Amino acid sequence: MKHLLSRIEKMMPGFSKGQRRIAQYIEDHYDKAAFMTASKLGATVGVSESTVVRFATEVGYDGYPQLQKAMQEMIRNKLTSVQRIEVTSNRIGDADVLDSVLNQDIDKIRRTLEETSHKDFYEAVDAIVSARKIYILAARSASALGIFLNYYFSLIFDKVELVTTTSKTEIYEKMFRINEEDVFIGISFPRYSKQAVSAMNFAKRKGARGIALTDSLLSPLAQQADFVLLARSDMASVVDSLVAPLSLINAMIVATALKKKDEVSKTFQNLEEIWDEYEVYEKVEEDPVEA
């Protein structure tokens, strides 16, 4: 944050009148500017879109998307719930809410596919498959992702521990046996959970391999991890968008299941028999075919 703002302040005397408008708006409202297109930012301050693009290159970026990303990093982990509501309202404006939210989620999955490391993904899958025990910790709104991952991994693997974050003591009580044969999967998105970061650091001190499922290489969860799986979330939405992280988790489950295909097939065959015997699922009769 200081780097971008100090650079703008230092260069202010040399800016044109239009560039000074942009600079002043970013200094005062970077939490809003970070989610504006170049066109919208230009319209807001009364300059052309091309002026905004030239401003981005003037302050040292390859283009406006890089400047926008820098502004988003400035506010990462800083937006309050009230600010989120305001930014969401400004972003959607008069557009259809359903169309807007779904299209934003589609974009998050696309950007996740572009940005996450395939190398880290497949090496993380290998580490999970070969681990003695798998520990999963997902904090706050991301806890739903941990529950989902734990449900399927518990069907695929013998030893899976979902570490709850209800108390610090319970976290380390569940993890005190973790060692170099194990894997720790930490899941957290802005605003980042101190408990998730602390647990990742603890796992690494005990020699376990760490897998971070988070949104940025700048995430504190990623600093100690052996493998970083990046999934786009939305720190400025009223709610945390978990569509892209869930899609990445789905890929992780499928990849591990295929690594243990024969064993998993037998497991699910046995489970199907149990589910049928105890009528776990409601049977839906097919419509009779008309003669």
Automatic annotation (TrEMBL):
Q: Which Gene3D superfamilies match?
A: Glucose-6-phosphate isomerase like protein, domain 1 (3.40.50.10490), Winged helix-like DNA-binding domain superfamily/Winged helix DNA-binding domain (1.10.10.10)
Concerning Pfam families, the annotation shows: HTH_6, SIS
What CDD domains does this protein map onto? Answer: SIS_RpiR
GO terms of molecular function: carbohydrate derivative binding; DNA binding; DNA-binding transcription factor activity
Tell me the Gene Ontology biological-process terms attached to this UniProt entry.
carbohydrate derivative metabolic process
Please verify whether the record's keywords include Transcription: yes
Recite the UniProt keywords alphabetically: DNA-binding, Transcription, Transcription regulation
* Ranges for domain SIS: 124-263
Does the keyword Nucleotide-binding belong to this entry? no
- Which part of the chain is the HTH rpiR-type domain? 2-78
PANTHER family in alphabetical order: GLUCOKINASE, RPIR-FAMILY TRANSCRIPTIONAL REGULATOR
Name of this protein: MurR/RpiR family transcriptional regulator
